[in-house]
């Protein structure tokens, strides 16, 4: 799993949480054929907007990865559905999945169109730095669900 995100987490509570959840995902997912996960950050230093960010995000995606964009127009999945999708990708032999998070203005339309899946964390718009935490937690939750652990409660 690769989280590809615009902007840099330079420390602080979000960075601590992302690191913690990705570490948990790695430990739980290892025995399930999932993980480890990493976060690849890109930054548009020239101010080229969403199109420049899209180019940078594309370069961060591992070759052949299943591409998932986080977008408010995407499908809202319950956590067990997300876990099932990750398990299905694993079972189909997909070696990597890239979860792409745009910057403050979102993702370019063409990048959204290229994605294999677009998912949303609901009708509300979330800060892109907080979305990283949410993605990392959902990866850990998905691995926990697939492992049958009690972390996820219905």
Tell me what you see in this structure.
- With 154 residues, the protein is an alpha/beta fold.
- It contains 5 helices and 5 strands; from the N terminus they run E-H-E-H-E-H-E-H-E-H.
- It has helices at residues 13-30, 49-60, 79-91, 109-114, 128-147, and strands at 2-6, 38-42, 66-76, 97-101, 117-120.
- Helix 1 (13-30) runs parallel beside helix 5 (128-147).
Q: Can you tell me the overall shape?
A: globular
Mean pLDDT: 94
Number of strands: 5
Helix percentage: 40-55%
SSE-based structural type? alpha/beta
Main β sheet profile: 5 strands, parallel
Strand order of the largest sheet: 2-1-4-3-5
Order of helices and strands: EHEHEHEHEH
Q: Care to give the gist of this entry?
A:
This protein is α/β, with parallel strands linked by helices. It has helices at 13-30, 49-60, 79-91, 109-114, 128-147; strands at residues 2-6, 38-42, 66-76, 97-101, 117-120.
